[in-house]
Amino acid sequence: MIADRISQDLSGKKSQNDGGIKEYTHDPESFIGEKPSDSTMTQETFGVKDFAIPDGTFWGWMCVFSYFMTSFICWGGNTAFSIYLSNYLQHNTFHASAVDYAAIGGLAFGIGFVFAPVNTYLVGITSANFVVFLAGLFQFVALFTSSYCKEIWQLYLGQGILMGFGLALVSTPIPVIIPQWFEKYRSRALLLGASGTGLGGIMFNLAIQKIIEEWGVAWARRIQSFMVISVCTVCSLLIRTRNEKIKPEFKPLDTKILFSFPFIVMLLWLMFTMLAYVTTQYSMTNSTVALGYTARQGSITIVLFNVGAIIGRPSTGVISDKFGPVTTATFIYFFASLLCFAMWIPARNLPTMYVFGIVIGFIAGFVLGALPAVVPRIVGLRKLQVAYGMAYSVLGASGVVSPVIGLSLRKHKEAPGQYTWVAMFAGLCFFMSGFWALVLRAYIIAKDKLTGFKNPDLGEDVQTKVPMAMVIENLFTVRHKQKV
Fold first, then answer.
1. Is the dihedral angle over the CA atoms 18, 19, 21, 26 positive or is it negative?
2. Who is most buried in 112, 215, 351, 403, counting CB within 10 A?
3. Could you tell me the pTM of the whole model?
4. How far apart are the C-alpha atoms of 69 and 451, rounded to whole Å?
5. Residues 59, 40, 45, CA angle at the centre, nearest 5°?
6. How far is it, in rounded angstroms, from Cα 429 to Cα 441?
7. What percent of the chain has pLDDT over 90?
8. Measured between alpha carbons, how far is 174 from 179 in angstroms, rounded to an integer?
9. pLDDT in tens, 296-336
10. Where are the membrane-spanning stretches (predicted)?
């Protein structure tokens, strides 16, 4: 009788949505007896065959591979700027101040992301494949022309602005494709791809230094430029989307999403996370040197930071798939805050800095891989591209100002604790990141209870109004029927 009732509900409530995908709806309360468990409440339970996520396949894993390789060659390669920077300072190449170099690093990290909604629109009118190739072309031009720079303004244009747009373009299309291919293992697929940044950070920081010693800075940049364009070209040929099934939107802006409570909370989580993450990453080497150690010993700290990222991102992806990305983010960033206050501030020796580097590297970059898994939990898969583009604008703005803030908070050079205020700033920002992740988690739990645990990927509950009292009530809810 129960099976007949369920079959009748699923077959009798067929509807046609405005995207042209056939969907079925049902009220979870209509089930007689025991409701389906979390593991059975999949796309098929809801009867949405066209929308069903395959959880892998050859092309799905090719997208993960492309994400890994572009993270390796682009973001990992961008960390080599610290090696070039050391050489520029040593030889006073551009007669510039440390603030100039910090600003250039910030531009490279975030200026392109400020225009992420435009990148999203570009993907819509062209294709993800074209945008990935274009990203490689931007970075090729940035690196190649930087090898001929003689003035600081030229470095601003090349290493700063052009590189920034190239990094943003490569980061816009690929991460949002992966949720189309993975459901159960979504977080681990995303964070496995994002772990390429850590491996690239290690490889490039070691290799570029050797190339500079053998052939000089100019040839190091030219070799890196050809590596970037080659890898991005191959990856642009490997990625595939499921847009014909998902029917995603590519609008540069959606005001209903932008001014919604959960999206604003997510932006606050993202902003504080990036302020802390970038400030910490850019301060690791110099913070070690400030304790009286050599530049080479200081460089090992950032290498260990990247080692932590290689191990940590796939590991936290497994944890995220088990407990949910927002829940995982809450615990991770509260713990990161504790590390800053308990380890970084009182650190006065090399082993402490090394341990701090590897542990903070293990967890701090979780947001970069987890964001494409968090956004569908709020807006669904169809609006993922739009929301992701708007969110990356905040990420970019935070990345631009973080290095300058970190540099401004340093004390005078003679003080062994000159990075105390930097560590306090990072610790407070990590704490606020954990707090806003906790609020977002409470909102999602409250929404699930109101809507009857609908499949979030469908985006049917985007406009649900959740009373603030319910959000506060669920702040410390431990167990929930769906992963958050």
1. negative
2. 112
3. 0.80
4. 40
5. 80
6. 18
7. 24
8. 10
9. 788 788 888 888 888 888 888 889 888 889 999 999 999 99
10. 58-78, 98-116, 121-144, 156-178, 190-212, 218-239, 259-278, 290-311, 323-347, 353-375, 387-409, 421-444
Distance CA 328, CA 132 (A): 30
The per-residue DSSP string of 239-280 comes to: ----HHHH-----S--HHHHTSHHHHHHHHHHHHHHHHHHHH
Q: Give 185-216 pLDDT, tens digit per residue.
A: 888 888 888 888 888 888 887 788 788 888 88
In the chain, the amino acid numbered 94 is F
Query: Are 31 and 169 members of one domain?
Result: no
Residue 308 lies in a domain: yes
Between the alpha carbon of residue 271 and those of residues 235, 274, 440, the distances in Å are: 29, 5, 14
Residue scoring higher pLDDT (121 or 27): 121
Statement: residue 33 has pLDDT above 50: no
Residues listed for the chain: 484
| CA torsion through residues 352, 353, 358, 360, sign | positive
Spatial contact of 114 and 161, defined as CB atoms under 8 Å apart: no
Q: Are residues 33 and 129 in the same domain?
A: no
Q: How confident is the model at residue 37 (pLDDT cuts 50, 70, 90)?
A: very low
Angle at 67 between CA 211 and CA 218, to 5 degrees: 20
Question: Both 67 and 215 in a single domain?
Answer: yes
Query: For residue 167, which of 209, 119, 205, 127 has the smallest C-alpha distance?
Result: 119
| Amino acid at position 450, single letter | L
Q: Determine contact, residues 389/172, Cβ cutoff 8 Å.
A: yes
